Every structure is written in structure tokens, then in C-alpha cells.
Amino acid sequence: MKTLLPLFFVLAGAFAACNDQKEQSSDKNLLEAEAERLEEEYETALHKDIPAADSTSYVMDSLKDFPIKKSIELRLNAATFEDSLQSIYRRLNLDSANLPYDVFRMGMIGHYNLRMEGALGDRDILTLIDFTQSSCDKRFYTLDLDSMKILFNTYVAHGRNSGGNFASSFSNLSGSNQSSLGFFVTAETYTGSKGYSMRLDGQEAGINDKVRERAVVMHEAKYVSEDWISKYGRLGRSLGCPALPEGISRTVIDSIKNGTTLFAYYNDSTYLNASRYLDLDQLMRGGEIVEEVATPLLNPIN
Length: 302
Known about the structure:
Blueprint: H1 4-46, H2 58-62, E1 71-73, H3 78-91, H4 101-116, E2 125-130, E3 140-144, E4 149-154, E5 182-192, E6 195-202, E7 217-218, E8 220-221, H5 226-232, E9 244-245, H6 249-256, E10 261-265, H7 269-274, H8 280-286, E11 288-290, H9 291-298
Parallel strand pairs: 2-10, 8-9
Antiparallel strand pairs: 1-11, 2-3, 3-4, 5-6, 5-10, 6-7
């Protein structure tokens, strides 16, 4: 009997440990189910009263309200351009904000290409979303290229079907409930079931040009918070909208609305190789950079 007692206690301990693991797994599954239920309830309620979007492009019709600064000819070479981008990256201390240089560089190339096309308004503002980062990270960045400041660095949600904590799937299709990649131009604001919101116009056919008809807009959401992360281990997810934290969303929207650049990045080689906005040679061949862009390029900040 004495020789059996140690074996009994070992087996009892193993049984208890197994039960603990099952209970922990069950608790985790219950939390995930609760998070998904709350996301669905919140998003379903929000989407009941979304104002209808105009079928025509807001940005193209409204650019007359946001005058473009007069373009000037500026001959650049790729080396000068790269040196200037690196100087701006250092000046903004973006490495400390966990924004990789390559993401910043791509955003800047696309931003300047959009400006070359006359697609942007007067303010020199670039917003980037780095979807390679966890939803628990502050992966939303707004840069003021006139004042050389980071205006915002905060949390942003991705679409429910793009992934859990990390986004990895993206779509341009209605009903996909996924985020879209690429370059957007911010558009008009409205107040609807999501509260104060901002429409977006995707600039890339087949990649994000359906976001307006999909009602993919920027808005606030209670599931974009550190409390939500603490409870569920990730942010809540939208139906494809880049949802922002309550309390800061309106300030962000008012700072970037009406004709500024938004770039949503993911390391998708198919998209990265196909996007015309990421073509540096195209920018160099253009031979023109708008006046407000010329200053940092000609006078890089060390």
C-alpha cells in the first residue's frame, strides 16, 4: 500500500493539472465567444442607420473647395529623394514609435504620387496603418509633413474576417467584413449611427475602390480600447472600418478629413508589386513636386 501512495498522488496531480488546462481553455473560448458576440451586436446596431453614400466620387467633385498649391518644377534623383525621406524619418523619431522605415517610405511615395495627380487637398498630412502589427499595438500614425510632427499614434481596428489579433486577409468585396489595403483619400464627414464619421475614397481599382459603397468609414468604437485588450487579448473588430478609440476619434477625423492621404499597409507582395502609387520611377519621371513637398526634399533635416 505504501508503494502505491506516491503513484496515487502523481496521478491525482496530473489529473488536476489536466482539469486546470481544460478549464483555462474553456475560459479562453468563452471570452473569445463573448468578444465576438459583443462585436456583432455593436456593429449590427451601428449599421442599421448608415446614411446612403453618393454614387459619385466625393473627392473629384469637391476638390475645388480645397485648392492645390501651385506646382513647381523640381528635378530630383532617387538618391536625393531617399536621403530626404531618411532625414524626415529620423526627425519624426518614427523608429521609436515602432513604424518601420519601409512602411513610412512607401506611404510617402504614394502620398507624393497622389499629390502629383492633384488628388489631394491643401494640407500636407499622411496617415498610415501598419496591419503587420498586432491589434494590441498603436499601429495608426498621422504625420503632419508641414510642421514635421506626429499628430496621432493610436489604436485602430481591422475587419472581423481579416483575422483575430493580427490581420492577414483583405478584400474589396461587399459583405466580406474585411479591411482593404492601399491608398485612400479622406473625404466628407457625417453623423450617423456610428456617431461622427468620415467617408473614404479608395484610389486603387480592384483593391479598395469599393469602400464607399461598402460603407467602410472611419468612426469610433468602444471595442477599440485598452480595457478591451486587457479583457479579450486583442481589440474588437469592425465590419471592415478602421475604427478608432472613443474620445480621440473626432479629433483625428477633423485633422485628416477632406483630401488627405491614408495608406493601409500589409506585406502582401501581390499588392506591393502591382500598386502604381508605389512606383518611385513614376514619381521621378514626373519631374514635378508640389511646393510644400519641395521644402523637405531640397532641405533635408538631419
